[in-house]
């Protein structure tokens, strides 16, 4: 799955020398940034972060789901996608990584939605 995402990224990325490893020009406005999200799901607000790409949009956007509920959050992938001109949304399922609620596998699709 990860290699498919990277292949799609490279095919649709803005014209940069190597979008996975090269930052956008320092003069790009707006600048790349992160915004904290509080996403309503199941009666609580789960924690999330938006990695927002530099430069004028619109930018394609992808939602990244972390492991269940492991250590891998794929934030390196979020950074690479943002660097290549994508917005990346990450979030923590209910009851995982500090999000309120109780973790249950069955509610993960609702949290992702």
Question: What do these coordinates show?
Answer:
The chain has a single domain (2-112), classed as Alpha/Beta hydrolase fold, catalytic domain (Rossmann fold, 3-Layer(aba) Sandwich). The protein is built from three helices and four strands. The protein starts with a helix and ends with a helix. Strands 1-2-4-3 form a four-stranded mixed beta sheet. The model has no long low-confidence stretch (mean pLDDT 83). By secondary structure, the chain is an alpha+beta fold. A hairpin with a 2-residue loop joins strand 1 (33-41) and strand 2. The radius of gyration is 15 Å and the shape is elongated.
Keywords:
Rossmann fold; elongated; 4 strands; 25% strand; 22% helix; 113 residues
- Assess the beta-strand content as a share of residues: 15-25%
Radius of gyration: 15 Å
H-E string: HEEEHEH
Which percent range fits the helix content?
Answer: 10-25%
* SS-based class: alpha+beta
Within CATH, the superfamily carries the name Alpha/Beta hydrolase fold, catalytic domain
The CATH class turns out to be: Alpha Beta
Query: How far apart are the first and last residues' alpha carbons, in Å?
Result: 19 Å
How many beta-strand elements? 4
**What is the global morphology?**
elongated
Mean pLDDT: 83
Strand arrangement in the largest pleated sheet:
1-2-4-3
Helix-strand blueprint:
Blueprint: H1 2-12, E1 33-41, E2 44-52, E3 61-65, H2 75-83, E4 87-91, H3 108-112
Parallel strand pairs: 3-4
Antiparallel strand pairs: 1-2, 2-4
């Amino acid at each position: 799955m990860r290699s498919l995402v990277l292949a799609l990224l490279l095919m649709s990325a803005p014209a940069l020398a190597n979008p996975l490893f090269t930052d956008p020009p320092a003069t790009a406005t707006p600048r790349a940034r992160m915004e904290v999200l509080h996403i309503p799901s199941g009666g609580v607000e789960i924690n999330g972060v938006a990695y927002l790409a530099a430069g004028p949009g619109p930018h394609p956007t992808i939602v990244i789901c972390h492991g269940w509920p492991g250590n891998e959050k794929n934030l390196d992938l979020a950074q690479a996608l943002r660097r290549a001109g994508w917005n990346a949304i990450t979030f923590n399922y209910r009851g995982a990584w500090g999000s309120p609620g109780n973790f249950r596998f069955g509610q993960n699709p609702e949290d992702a939605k």
